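#help-structures
NK: newbie question, is this the right format to request a structure? protein is Short-chain dehydrogenase/reductase SDR
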Amino acid sequence: MEIEGKKAVVVGGASGFGRATAEALAKRGASVAVLDRPQSKGKEVADQIGGTFHEVDITDFDGTEAVLNQAVEALGGLHIAVTTAGGGIAERTVKKDGPHSLDSFRKSIDLNLIGTFNISRLAAWHMSKNDPVDDEAEERGVIINTASIAAFEGQIGQVAYTASKAAIAGMCLTMARDLGSLGIRALAIAPSLFATGLTEGIPDEFASVLTKDAAFPKRLGKPEEYAKLAVAIVENPMLNGQCLRLDAGQRFAPK
């Protein structure tokens, strides 16, 4: 799919992976709606790239639907949806004071998995109404979700986070098969450790410890490198139904 002239929604677009992706899509001629929390820098990013900003809490599922509808209306359609919002907790299956809290487990699932699936299903519905962007391929849209290499090598204390990210990776092929007849692709990106959020700006000596198991390069990834892969996914119609690792050959150790 050619990016120029397309309509894109980036959830979590105020920072990190989302911001870099929103900027990359806009640079290539897409109209971009940035969705993020009210206290984020979403409006600043949207103003910078000539897009629109829409406040959202992705754990408010009904509210998310209303916000996405508003964003798509403002764009005049939807061809590209990228979800990067999420988070994690540190909690073992059994702790000194008892078993893992079901409440905190559910919160991780709601934020990372249900929030992602909710946006994916709603975005796919909007995309299904598009005329094909390419008469030969009959493509109508592409959905890119964000997993993690923790989906494959979850570390100690990450059981809730790992479960949610593994589910995002696991639903790629099924979703792609569900949407194939509509000309909509579905994929996920599974990053390793990147300079986003809590890891942004940490000293090099600490970063080198965190990435010592990487093959090459032995450093934190850059949000722009995530955005480059997202752009490549959009532009290459043969990429579909899979979760792509973006990890410099790193495999997480148990802790």
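mod (FA): yep, format's fine, and the tokens are attached above. The first helix runs from residue 16 to 27.
NK: thank you!
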